[in-house]
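Researcher: Next sequence.
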Amino acid sequence: MNRILAIAAVAVIGAFGAFLWINSQPQAPGIDIGAVNAQTAENIDTSIVTEMTMGNPDAAVTVIEYASFTCPHCRTFHEGAFKELKADYIDTGKINFVYREVYFDQPGLWAGMLARCGGEERYFGIADLIYQNQSTWLAGDPATIANNLRRLGRTAGLSDDQINACLQDGDMAQAMVAAYQQNATADGIRSTPSFVFNGKLHSNLSYSEFSEFIDEALGS
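Model: Next structure:
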């Protein structure tokens, strides 16, 4: 998905403007979009956004993936090459793998909020479910998409109260968008999926290319 990164203000406005669509419950938060627009990513506290990782945190090699839950190429990677990467390098403790969400659109942010509903332990399982059903939950208008995500959350074992609390957490949504902007800007991310190997940026890769880069970094 080759798209130019949106500027922070536009991303935040898009994310929060759509809360009127996804919050069907009467306790939906009142979001002052004008106030959000006046802030920049640098002004927002992102400490509440947990970094989602797998593998060995002390490994000599760290691989960071930047991906969007609405990106077809990201889905293809997670259904294919990622499974090999996980078996050969993540589960064996050879690398530290970090997954960072990119929000090119509102549904991508909502999906990220849903994936985080189960906490760190369940994050990657819910993320897999979101990718596996990407073409299904993305079909329809914003309200339909939000309801599709709610159904996925229930499939993952989340309660309606948990799902609603996550999708209505305005502070978390704002922090997630700010964290995305800060990280993507720092690493020069312009498309998804993109990967950073020990600080070096690469675009979408085949598994053989992945393996070659990692083995080189590991000195094997």
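Model: The chain is about 55% helix and 10% strand. Residues 1-39 have pLDDT under 50 and may be disordered.
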